[in-house]
Amino acid sequence: MAMISDAPVLQQTSEPAEGAAMRSRLSRYARPVLGVLLPLTLALGWEIAVWSGWSNGRLVPPPSRVLATIAELVRSGELVRHITATLWRVGLGFAFGVIAGTLLGAVSGYWSLARRLLDPTVQALRAIPSLAWVPLFILWLGIFETSKIALIAVGVFFPVYLGVMGAILSVDRKIVEVGRTFRLSGPAMIRRILLPAVLPAYVVSLRVGLGLGWMFVVAAELIGASEGLGYLLLDGQQLGKPAQILAAIVIFAVLGKLTDWLIEVAAAPFLRWQDAFGRARGA
Amino acid sequence: MLALDRVSKTYPNGVEALARFSAEIRQGEIIAIIGGSGCGKSTLLRAVAGLDRASSGCVTLDDETISSPHAKIGIIFQEPRLLPWLSVADNIGFGLADLPATERREKVARALERVGLADKAQAWPRELSGGQAQRVAIARALVPRPEVLLLDEPFSALDAFTRRDLQDHLLDLWADTRPTLILVTHDVDEAVVLADRVLVMRPRPGRLFDQIEINLGRPRDRNSPLFENFKRSVLTSLDRSLDRSVPDRDATQGPGQAMWW
User: Fold this and answer.
1) Do A12 and A73 fall into the same domain?
2) What pLDDT digit, counting tens, does each position of A143-165 carry?
3) Which residue of B has its CA nearest to A183?
4) CB proximity A181 to B under 8 Å
5) How far apart are CA B141 and CA B128, in angstroms?
6) Do A181 and A46 share a structural domain?
7) What is the tens place of the pLDDT at every residue in A108-131?
């Protein structure tokens, strides 16, 4: 739809068309600005409130103090160390969770026998709150990296498993039939029909999985770590440094959004064909 | 020659969709299968396509038994069923994966030209109208040069004007390689415009009721009295097929058959 609405704008150069082009350019920049308007106003308001003495900002430090804390952490090199540790854990946990979730999800989706064997067990395990694994993982894998990565992988595994299996099960029978009439072999059917059909749902499940990965890295690092953003949170709480806690939260938000965006951008070229609501709205 | 020998299909739930359907179809012949709903038209077509197996009886193409999809048999469904992640050109070339890329490109380009969509080669299926999408589906089915092309109510979802346009277009494409066409339809007009022979089926269980030769030259004038005559006789037969008081006649020995052999 975006193409259709843009086309006449590009061809005509008359007054009203130029106005429309200007407006559309404006809306392209205005849209993201609209999104940051609310947080920016709140931040500014709080800054003014503290600066003018209405609040001492001891427990809720103003943005300037949070930024100063971040700058200080950057200068000392602490921040890079913490971010590296956290990213490393999320990355490894995510990788293991995605690999396991994709493999098992694909197997359960493709073979009904495997689904009958596997799925009830997986669903039962899914019903366990993932944090309940923590004591066991610590006993089995020690308190260092392995148990943390295992916990994150468990968090990532379930949405990916469910996403892949559900996507395969809901592939349109009519499209599969097209593959059959062209006598595709099993592997060719997977490569040429199932994989592309499943991809949109797969990307969504990866993003959900990543979100859970970030959730669980905090849990893992709160339980016992000497570095990482979660440690920064805990350290801030124990030493009464709310600015440091907020700094860690802000960095979590930025990293979470950034990694999610990376998946979206990496998948975009493969999903250009989608005929979706979001695309029609030019989102 | 495509031969259907006492093809029957009973579904696992006990519904007898098709009972002892026999017909012989010459290479290059255009057959229209028409009948009330539930008369097993689509079941029959799926058996010929090799998508479903008949419960008994067999389908043979040039003495080769059809039990799974066959390279010489193509099918066009009621919906275009294009693969949304492939461009129009790649959709048309879908069945040509075994060919070297240059040859494939050439064939696809020719097919696109032939169905009048050369400018849409790189478009996504979502950007096509219903008629255009069905044209792409026709091109996709024809490009591997099938000897038999099955069409399952291919134009029923289109508006009347587009439908006529595509019917003429189909005949035009058919003339290129003259494959056997078997068209399932519930549109009497469409059957008489396209077919050399109309097979009328009757429901519960689905079986052959009557066959009517359409001895009209091509191109056919939809408004000629002769055309109207054939339409009327197909309609009459269709009405009789739905009337339970009319007994079955042994269709394999019907007068239509005698005229052919």
Assistant:
1) no
2) 888 999 999 999 999 999 999 99
3) B69
4) yes
5) 18
6) no
7) 998 999 999 999 999 999 999 888
